[in-house]
Amino acid sequence: MRIDILTIHPELLKSPFEHSILQRAIDKKIVEIRLHDIRTYSTDKHKKVDDYQFGGGAGMVMCIQPIADCIDQLKSERNYDAVVYMTPDGERLDQSIANHYSTFENIIILCGHYKGVDQRIRDHYITHELSIGDFVLTGGELAAALFCDSIIRLIPGVISDETSALTDSFQDNLLAPPVYTRPAEYNNWKVPEILLSGNFPKIEEWRHEKAIERTKKRRPDLLDS
Ligand code: ADE
Hints:
- This protein has helices spanning 20-27, 64-77, 95-101, 119-124, 141-152, 162-166, 200-218, 220-224, and strands at residues 2-7, 32-37, 50-52, 60-62, 82-92, 106-111, 128-131, 185-186, 189-190.
- It is of the alpha/beta class.
- It is elongated and about 70 Å long.
């Protein structure tokens, strides 16, 4: 998978891909991340990327030209499965959306700022709009990093134990059950006996029960859907 991210703050997006599982996915060439500084595409002599809103109102709007030129350039080089705009008024990201995107070959992600981007970019270039939740961030970069993390970890070969991504919370509309590791007793707090029993069918049954119990308590809405 190749992901091209358009941003006015490329530095903000370096670190998330330089550690742990995402770094390893890049090293293994399972995924390639390209950061594009929108400002470098601006034809304005001051490299301006935003301007006042037509009709008045507070807040600047990101201009069409540098974004359009960057996307046109990328699209002339390869086909893209999606051109995603990260925005609080987009469709709410969830596990099923992450599963869907994890099968794509090439994705462009546009990070918004200020009051957002000129609507004509959304009308003519963007194929999907995604929000990471009902709150507003200072820009789309952290949302883009989070979205990339959620999809990259699902690509086969990224997480070494393939079953582990399948047993995540939300994969069956259930939250994950509690997990424990050594020591079996700490401060008199004991690990549930069943997990030490070696009876794997019973352990699976216990985990499923706990997953349902936890979901009922914390996210009953998931059980309705
Ligand atoms: N940009 C600002 N806030 C955002 C959010 N909640 N989701 C996606 N992109 C955003």
